[in-house]
Amino acid sequence: MGTDWQDHRLKELLDRETRWLGLQLAGDQIAALLSFGQELERQNRRFNLTAISEPPAVIRKHFADSLAPVPYLPTGIRKLVDIGSGAGFPGLVLKICCPDLDITLVESIKKKAAFLTQTAAFLGLDGVNVIERRAEQLGHETQYREQFDVATARAVAPLPALLELCLPLLSVGGCFIAYKGPQVDEEIRTSARALSLLGGTIEAVKKLTLLGDEKRTLVFVRKIAPTPPQYPRGPGRPAKRPL
Question: I need a surface site. Which of 18, 54, 135, 191 has the fewest CB within 10 A?
């Protein structure tokens, strides 16, 4: 027997966690997130999608964490790309709570990409495109290069590597949001060369505390110039040899 994700206690917990962030979700959005949690629990037994499986931890460490940047999202954005989407964090969670966004989920691991496709359909989400490829490849495809207003990445790689994966996909003026833990100063310091080469600048660094004293940092990077055509480099190189 699995968890009853529609239990009123989980609904109340999710409501508290998101209100702490300054968000007030509609009833159907809360229900959709809890349905997502139910599906994640069911599929996680088969595919080992996440090590975090207890419902309260999923709500705080996946759902609330994914939603942390929503109050700061630029107005008028249409297209968001999420790099290394994994089990749908933050991409699918953002789609549930920002339904007008067109979301592209980039995930190179086949079982996770399949889960994303199936779960988006299960939740009835329109405007979700799942791409089973590496970001290094996507960044050189005309259909995707410099086509997005916002890029996100959570628990994927250090910041210098993330910049090379994400900035090529952003249009000039777009924003990359890196989800990080509390210790980011060294990553930011070592990102100066990548920012200069790739056409980005750090616009803001926001320190957050989730309920339960969970510390988080959001790094907002503005794209101020086109990314040179040689970037991103080939698969694996941004992580192995950061700029």
Answer: 54
pLDDT (tens digit, 0 to 9) for every residue of the chain, 243 residues total?
578 888 899 999 999 999 999 999 999 999 999 999 999 999 998 888 999 889 999 999 999 999 999 999 988 899 999 999 999 999 999 999 999 999 999 999 999 999 999 999 999 999 999 999 999 999 999 999 999 999 999 988 899 999 999 999 999 999 999 999 988 999 999 999 999 999 999 999 999 999 888 899 999 999 999 999 999 999 999 999 999
CATH number of the CATH domain containing 114: 3.40.50.150
In a domain, 194, yes or no: yes
Q: What is the DSSP string of 122-133?
A: HTT--SEEEE-S
Cα–Cα distances in angstroms (integers) from residue 99 to residues 3, 27, 92, 121, 224, in the given order: 26, 14, 10, 14, 27
Q: Is residue 64 part of a domain?
A: no
The structure tokens 């993330």 sit at: 162
E strand or H helix that includes residue 43 = helix 27-47
Pairing type for strands 170-180 and 102-106 reads unpaired
37 within domain boundaries: no
Question: What is the DSSP pairing of strand 128-131 with strand 214-223?
Answer: unpaired
**Domain span at 145:** 70-240
